[in-house]
Amino acid sequence: MTDPQSDDLYLNPTQAALFTSLNYLGMAFGCTCSGALQVKLGQRVTLLTVIPLSMAAWLTMAFVPVDAIWLIQIARVIQGVVVGVIYVTSSNYVVEVAHSDYRGRLGGTLAITRQVGIMFVYLLSLTNLSWREIALLCGCVSNIPPFLGLLFLPNSPRWLASRGCLEEAQKALTFYRGSQYDSQTELTKISEQFSSSGKGNSFMDQMKMMKDRRVLRCVLFMSFFVFARQFLGNTVVVSNMSSIFHAADV
């Protein structure tokens, strides 16, 4: 895409820098907006709603006209927004459906699969595939299997309980824990949490929880931690690895 001798779409240094950066700006917006979507729709429905948008962005990148650089930049923004929503929502979905004994390990697999995905794309660059074919392949691999899988999964039991759908919540717990598990006891504990606090049933209810100093202190600490982590340079290095190696002539 940065080869001036190519007959295909060409990005000058400024356009290439935008192409790399717009994705992360979109992710910042998507992560911020994902909370309200999860409270309103639930994690599963939120993912089913945004995954087709992700696929559309990948298809746009794969088939963008040679002279429509603005279109591929818009696709990158949309892709970033959707990825931001998916990243946060999928994490919360795993946390809410997983049993406490396996929650940490399952949550850790999300970070592992992200790194495997990055390695997968770099390995594709060793083939004779063009960047358009790689974009098409990435879109299919990262969107079609999750979308089909989510069609056969129930909503989060905790989210269903927060909406008052206790019968569906128990069915979801039975699905995730197995028929031999005492799902009624866990559902009772979840219901008691909501009834005792009277919170968590809407986005505004969750925002009101910030009045609790303990909650606010934890949120501020984690926000600072996540914010500071972005300045470690990992994102910049991963996104510009190809350019770095070309500049080093290795």
From TrEMBL:
Residue intervals of the Major facilitator superfamily (MFS) profile domain: 1-250
Keyword vocabulary terms for this entry: Membrane, Transmembrane, Transmembrane helix
GO CC term, one of those recorded: membrane
Lipid bilayer topology: Multi-pass membrane protein
Membrane-spanning residues: 16-38, 45-64, 70-94, 214-232
SUPFAM superfamilies in the record: MFS general substrate transporter
Primary residence: membrane
InterPro entries, sorted: MFS_dom, MFS_sugar_transport-like, MFS_trans_sf, MFS_Trehalose_Transporter
Location(s) in or outside the cell: Membrane
Molecular function as annotated in GO: transmembrane transporter activity
Domain of life assignment: Eukaryota
Name this protein carries in UniProt: Major facilitator superfamily (MFS) profile domain-containing protein
Taxonomic lineage: Eukaryota, Metazoa, Ecdysozoa, Arthropoda, Crustacea
